[in-house]
Design goal:
By secondary structure, this protein is an alpha/beta fold. The protein has one domain: TIM Barrel (Alpha-Beta Barrel). The protein contains eight helices and nine strands.
Length: 267
C-alpha cells in the first residue's frame, strides 16, 4: 500500500507583505505608472541597471520609496537590457556571484547616500524562474547575497527549493506567491498559462490564502503555501485596481516586521 503523505495543517495568515517592482525603465523606455502602486505595497524591488534601470531612474525610485516609507530591496537580473532579463543564461557560480554582488552593492551604496537601507534581494525574470527550479543555482545567488550582508532577506518563489536554500545557506528568506499565476499541484507555477487579471478571482485567491494558506491549483484542488509575500506584477493592465482591492482586505507589512511580530516587540 502506498504511504499517504501527511497534509499540512491549515493556518491563518495574519500578516503578509505586498511587493512590486520599481525602476523598470531604461533610457527612453519609461514606466511612470508603477509609482502609483507605492500607496498599496509594503516593499519594492528596485532594478539595479542590468535588466532595467539607469542611474536617474534608480535615484527617483529610491527617493519615491523613501517618501512613502516603503521598504526597499534590490531587484537583480541577468545582464540583458534588450530582453529585459527574460532570456536565460548559462553561468558558472563565480559569474553568478559577481553578477549578484555587483548589482546588490550598487543599490546598497546608492541607498546609503540617502540614509536608506536595502532589506531584501529579489531575482527577476529568467533568473527568478531558474532559481525557483534549480537548487544549486538558487544557492549560488543566496551565497552571493549573504556576502553582501547576512541580514538581507532572499525573496524566492514559494516552495521546497526556496525553503531549503534558506536552511542550507543560513539566510533569511521570504516565500513569494503570485495570485495571477496558475499553480500546479506541487506548488510550482505553470508558466505556459496566461496570467489571470480578473479582480474577482484575485480577491478570492487572496482570501483563501489568508484564511488557510492555500491556493487553488490547476487540477481544482488546493495546494498549501508558506507565504510571506505577494508579488503585484506591473505587467497586469489593471494591477492598480487589484492592489487597491487587496489592501481593503488586509494592510500589508514588510517581511521583517512580519517576522518580528510574533515576538511581541511590535504591535
Amino acid at each position: 500500500m502506498q504511504q499517504q503523505l501527511e497534509k499540512p495543517e491549515r493556518k491563518q495568515i495574519k500578516n503578509i507583505d505586498f511587493n512590486c517592482d520599481l525602476a523598470q525603465s531604461f533610457g527612453v523606455y519609461k514606466n511612470n505608472s508603477e509609482y502609483e502602486l507605492l500607496d498599496y505595497v509594503s516593499s519594492v524591488n528596485i532594478s539595479c541597471g542590468f535588466h532595467a534601470g539607469d542611474p536617474l531612474t534608480i535615484q527617483k525610485a529610491l527617493l519615491a520609496a523613501k517618501e512613502k516609507n516603503v521598504v526597499v530591496g534590490a531587484h537583480i537580473g541577468f545582464d540583458d537590457i534588450q530582453g529585459f532579463g527574460y532570456r536565460a543564461m548559462d553561468l558558472d557560480e563565480d559569474e553568478i556571484e559577481a553578477l549578484v554582488i555587483y548589482q546588490v552593492g550598487a543599490i546598497m551604496s546608492f541607498a546609503k547616500s540617502f540614509n536608506m537601507e536595502i532589506e531584501h534581494v529579489r531575482p527577476h525574470g529568467a533568473m527568478y524562474k531558474q532559481a525557483a527550479e534549480d537548487f544549486q543555482f538558487a544557492c549560488a545567488i543566496a551565497k552571493a547575497v549573504k556576502k553582501c550582508s547576512k541580514w538581507l532577506v532572499y525573496y524566492g518563489a514559494a516552495g521546497d527549493v526556496t525553503e531549503k536554500v534558506g536552511e542550507y545557506i543560513n539566510l533569511p528568506i521570504a516565500q513569494e506567491v503570485h495570485l495571477e499565476k496558475t499553480y500546479n499541484v506541487d506548488g510550482t507555477v505553470d508558466f505556459s498559462v496566461k496570467d489571470n487579471s480578473s479582480v474577482f478571482d484575485y480577491v478570492n485567491r487572496l482570501k483563501m490564502l489568508l484564511n488557510n494558506s492555500q491556493i487553488q491549483n490547476r487540477e481544482g484542488g488546493k495546494t498549501f503555501f508558506n507565504a510571506d509575500t505577494i508579488h503585484f506584477s506591473n505587467k497586469l493592465p489593471n494591477i492598480l485596481e487589484i492592489a487597491q482591492e487587496a489592501k481593503k482586505i488586509i494592510t500589508p507589512v514588510p517581511v521583517n516586521y512580519k517576522n518580528v511580530y510574533p515576538s511581541g516587540w511590535v504591535e
